[in-house]
Write a structure and sequence with these properties.
7 strands; alpha+beta; 7-stranded mixed β-sheet; single chain; rod-shaped; 8 helices; Beta Polymerase, domain 2
């Protein structure tokens, strides 16, 4: 079974390296125990795993964030990775919880983690890591590898949104920007503490890292830092583009208000004359003249033309 979700135990060293065992009866030799978070596995962890009770609660907790904590008998590490499960969004990141001892690594996954399935295939064919330290480094690197195309995709989305904004498609831009910023927030929320987790893991004395393992883990930590910086940079670009959007919308609103004000100013004197001559009282000028209506219309037209001329001279009549 290599779907990254089924429970199993695998030897990490010796002549039978990579051999798969029943997770309920793991071998005494250095091994990797992976557990799907079921009621049976949770009961086994609580009663038979000999894991610190505080660490146990962290292993089975819902919504665990990246962290590294040392205990007397081992180290608790929680990592987050891109969600590659069918029907899920990548930013809905999956968690991998690890309990690391000198001769044992216990991993727990509430949801399938693709890195587990990949490494399970290698271990079962005898090509996987040979020590707990190598296993931890390998898992951390594989989880980060799946972040690389996602960061590239986010950068491409940011560039496309910049072009849309320059093209003036504000409605389409606003919808795309809201989605992009939401994704960036979710990734940064998990990657920022993961960067600190990996750096703390490098300083942890409970785990015996070889020089090569330490260099690989340091590289994973540096790449995580770069992705956090890239996502922060894209978030800042999103903020700048949002400010540009607000500026354009305010400019458009001001232009519309100016147009409405000019139209109202042009028709105000005409409305006054219409109301004045529309009063049903005696003594209205031109009331008995057959040319009265045409003459009044001519007066109003001249009045509007005079207003437009004055506004242009004062540079107020601008609709652009």
């Amino acid at each position: 079974m290599s779907d990254g979700n089924a429970s199993f135990a695998a030897l990490l060293g010796g002549e039978q390296r990579g051999s798969i065992h029943d997770w309920r009866m793991p071998p005494a030799e250095p091994h990797w125990l992976h557990l799907e978070l079921t009621h049976e596995a949770e009961a086994w962890l609580l009663n038979k795993s000999r894991i610190d009770p505080v660490a146990f609660r962290a292993l089975v907790a819902m919504g665990a964030r990246p962290r590294c904590a040392a205990f007397d008998d081992g180290v608790l590490v929680v990592l987050r990775g891109v969600n590659t499960n069918e029907g899920s969004e990548p930013e809905d990141m999956v968690s991998l919880r690890m309990w690391i001892e000198k001769n044992r690594v216990v991993t727990v996954a509430p949801r399938p983690v693709s890195a587990i399935g990949d490494l399970h295939n290698r271990v079962s064919h005898g090509r996987g890591p040979g020590t707990p330290a190598e296993l931890v480094v390998d898992l951390a690197g594989r989880m980060l590898d799946r972040m690389t195309p996602i960061v590239a995709e986010l950068e491409e989305e940011t560039d496309i949104l910049s072009e849309i904004l320059l093209g003036g498609e504000l409605v389409r831009f606003r919808e795309g920007l809201a989605k992009l910023r939401r994704r960036l927030i979710q990734f940064r929320r998990h990657l920022s503490p993961q960067r600190d987790t990996l750096k703390a893991l490098l300083r942890e004395g409970h785990i015996v890292f070889g020089e090569q393992d330490r260099e690989l883990l340091r590289e994973v930590a540096e790449r995580t830092t770069k992705y956090v910086e890239d996502i922060s940079s894209m978030s800042e670009r999103g903020t700048v583009m949002h400010d540009e959007l607000e500026g354009r919308l305010n400019e458009r609103m001001n232009r519309n208000m100016q147009t409405m004000s000019l139209v109202a100013a042009l028709f105000l004197p005409v409305s006054f004359l219409s109301s004045l001559f529309g009063m049903n009282v005696g003594g209205i000028p031109l009331g008995n003249s057959e040319w009265g209506f045409l003459l009044l219309c001519a007066i109003m037209a001249l009045l509007m033309a005079g207003q437009i001329h004055v506004m242009r001279r004062l540079k107020l009549f601008t609709l652009s």
